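From the shared-data thread, chain only:
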Amino acid sequence: MPKNIQGDVNLYLVGFMGTGKSTIGRRVAEDLRMQFVDSDHAIEKGCQMSVPEIFEKHGESYFRELERAFVESGHPDSGMVVACGGGLVVQAGMLETLQERGVVVCLVASEETIVQRVSSNPNRPLLQVEDPVGRIRKLIAERSPIYRKVNTQIMTDHRPVINVVGHVARTYLHEASRFRKNRG
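Structure, as tokens:
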């Protein structure tokens, strides 16, 4: 992968929690010489609270408002790889908003891989329930129709990170060229 590319079109990584958005996003940003931001971390920094604290103090709907504000004005319009929180794109109109702002790629993993990666993570407020595996299955069922609307989906489980990073970077370069033509 070329090491001197500066993307002028943002790349938005979406998908369910545990699909590798942050891990892959950091590496893709490094390879493409772009900046990386994780929407959850940016929101935490802005609120000076963790995502679980935000959920506890203000509720999920407030957190979703913060996600919307982040997308609309909380990051630069170009040169960014953005790892979006798993629920960000399922909000009404958010997928379309992201598609107007840049290239959107959905990272996908099997239910088994997601359960293995996130079911015991205390920083996942939606999983702090009696049956986290059941909750994961329910959320996947609810969110999958939205994720499937993303034109590009890349499977992350059972693949080396470097392989996924290369796939995402190549996809970005191809789609960014198309995005520029459509915008200009």
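The beta strands are 10-14, 35-38, 80-83, 102-108, 152-155.
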